[in-house]
Design brief:
Elements lengths: L2 H8 L3 H10 L10 E4 L1 H10 L26 E4 L1 H10 L3 H76 L17
């Protein structure tokens, strides 16, 4: 946001806002807080935003403010961090209220983060409990499978032994006419 827009939001004059920023320049160092725009860049932004350029002085409209809207000085463009920092250096009631709300928001954000961390730890514990439970079930199932495999192997061996024993018993008589025997079966 540009300095004149923020001045209107905070209820101060643009010159007062710029003075406060210049007095506290260390707070705004770096491009992540604020950048200084040239007069040409400010004019370009104003024309793109359709705010209007080169407005006539309000004296010609019958008002006695004596100031025009022509841009004469470099403008400041503030980032989100810069807007928050600006509320701590301005002395208007609006800026003080905004600064209080920002501090309250930070405290609330920290509280929510701590709640989320506690919820995350609880969720992690529940996931570990479910993993342990599933591992126990799979171990029991493996034990059952091993027992079944052993039982099936024992049954298979018993059937094999029975087949061998039956073959070793007396040979079976053939069905049909036997030339050595005169009887039919």
């Amino acid at each position: 946001m540009l300095d004149f827009e923020l001045a209107a939001l905070y209820g101060v004059e643009t010159s007062q806002l710029k003075r406060a920023v210049r007095r506290n320049m260390k707070r705004f160092e770096g491009d992540d807080f604020m950048i200084v725009l040239s007069v040409a860049e400010t004019e370009e932004l104003r024309s793109r935003c359709q705010i209007g350029t080169m407005k006539k002085s309000s004296l010609s409209e019958g008002k006695n403010t004596g100031r025009g809207y022509n841009i004469k000085y470099e403008s400041f463009a503030f980032t989100e961090l810069g807007v928050a920092m600006l509320s701590s250096v301005l002395r208007s009631d609006t800026a003080i209220e905004i600064n209080r709300n920002i501090m309250r928001a930070f405290v609330e954000l920290r509280r929510l983060t701590q709640m989320a961390a506690a919820g995350y730890q609880e969720l992690q514990r529940e996931i570990n409990d479910v993993k342990d439970y599933i591992e126990d079930i799979l171990k029991d199932q493996n034990d059952i499978n091993e027992a079944h495999s052993a039982q099936l192997e024992a049954i298979s061996m018993a059937l094999t032994e029975l087949q061998v024993q039956k073959r070793q018993e007396k040979p079976r008589r053939r069905i049909g006419y036997n030339a050595t025997d005169d009887d039919w079966i």
